[in-house]
Design brief:
Layout (H helix, E strand, L loop, with lengths): L1 H33 L1 H35 L3 H16 L6 H10 L3 H11 L5 H10 L5 H12 L6 H27 L25 H35 L5 H10 L1 H9 L5 H14 L1 H11 L7 H25 L4
Length: 336
């Protein structure tokens, strides 16, 4: 009887999230039917964002990264950056590559690169989880150009904002490593093997063939199409909710920004809030990344052993640290 009761309890717990998802999808469908204009505008915004910005920015990176991993060029790249990055983040030599990609192209490329390296047998899963949390941010260009210059119009503070986002990410990823160490009851100062390992020693060189080239290109288009689909759907949801939550004040910005950060940043930047509040709000939602980017990350780490749930937990922690750091920054430099 006891075992049967436990099985029944677990089954009920498993059904609860599925039920919530079903209810959410049903309400989403009703919202689209009730507000077709908002849904249409949201779809247009999402499509244009994907076509004009995400597609030309990410697709070349994805295809090139596929080539680099398949033909083991990562070994040469890591030799250049690993002496610095290994000491800062206590990672293996190959772990330097997804950090570089994550900084340059933002989500979901950092997570995708970790996933690809794990599937190729080049990266340990736990190290991949740590790096995925570390580089789970918007790209360098997004943070400096779109956020600081285009949206907030404070180009003289772009590197300070960049530092706030990256520092909060480093703190949350370090917390993950500390918790993981404690859970495993290890007392060493490092979790990961930081010895330089040549990729050539791990796997045989991939032969150069058009089949391999085609696979890299098709994988790039598959990934970017998935990303586009998530961006469009979350843009529709954001557009619908922005109408319903028009009188919710600051809570409206946080809620909409937690869905899709580009829309959230635009709403905050175009509001009548003072610059101090704009900085705190935009840094907080940008550090979280939004559920749109979370869905994108989930789509590119399938079958890699990486945990989306763990990633979500530490992105929430990341946003909390970003909130505290941005408030400290505002107070310290007396920004009004």
């Amino acid at each position: 009887m006891g075992k049967a009761s436990n099985i029944s309890t677990k089954a009920n717990k498993a059904k609860t999230p599925r039920t919530l998802i079903k209810c959410g999808l049903f309400l989403f469908l009703i919202s689209i039917i009730v507000q077709p204009i908002s849904a249409l505008n949201g779809a247009k915004v999402g499509l244009l964002l994907w076509f004009n910005t995400v597609l030309p920015t990410l697709l070349p990176f994805i295809i090139l990264s596929n080539f680099i991993i398949r033909f083991q060029v990562t070994d040469y790249i890591c030799k250049v950056f690993s002496p610095i990055l290994k000491r800062i983040f206590h990672i293996s030599a190959i772990g330097c590559y997804p950090i570089i990609i994550g900084i340059l192209s933002g989500f979901p490329m950092g997570a995708k690169t970790c996933s690809d390296l794990i599937k190729e047998g080049l990266l340990d899963r736990e190290e991949g989880q740590y790096i995925m949390i570390l580089v789970g941010n918007a790209s360098y260009m997004f943070l400096t150009s779109f956020l600081a210059v285009s949206s907030l119009a404070i180009p003289n503070q772009k590197y300070q904002l960049l530092a706030l986002v990256y520092l909060s990410s480093m703190i949350s990823s370090s917390l993950y490593r500390f918790v993981n160490q404690k859970r495993k009851k290890k007392h060493s100062t490092t979790v990961y093997n930081t010895n330089s390992i040549s990729i050539a020693e791990c796997i045989d060189e991939t032969p150069l063939s058009m089949t391999t080239v085609d696979h890299c290109i098709l994988d790039g288009f598959t990934t970017i199409t998935k990303v586009g689909g998530y961006i469009i759907m979350f843009s529709v949801l954001t557009q619908i909710l922005s109408t319903l939550l028009e009188h919710f004040g600051i809570a409206r910005f946080l809620l909409l920004g937690s869905l899709e950060i580009t829309t959230g940043i635009y709403l905050i930047a175009s509001s009548t809030l003072d610059i101090a509040k704009k900085i705190v709000l935009t840094i907080t939602i940008t550090s979280f990344g939004g559920f749109s980017s979370l869905a994108q990350v989930g789509s590119v780490i399938e079958n890699s052993g990486l945990s989306l749930k763990t990633y979500l937990h530490y992105k929430v922690i990341n946003s909390l640290f970003a909130f505290l750091l941005s408030i400290s920054y505002i107070s310290l430099f007396n920004i009004i």
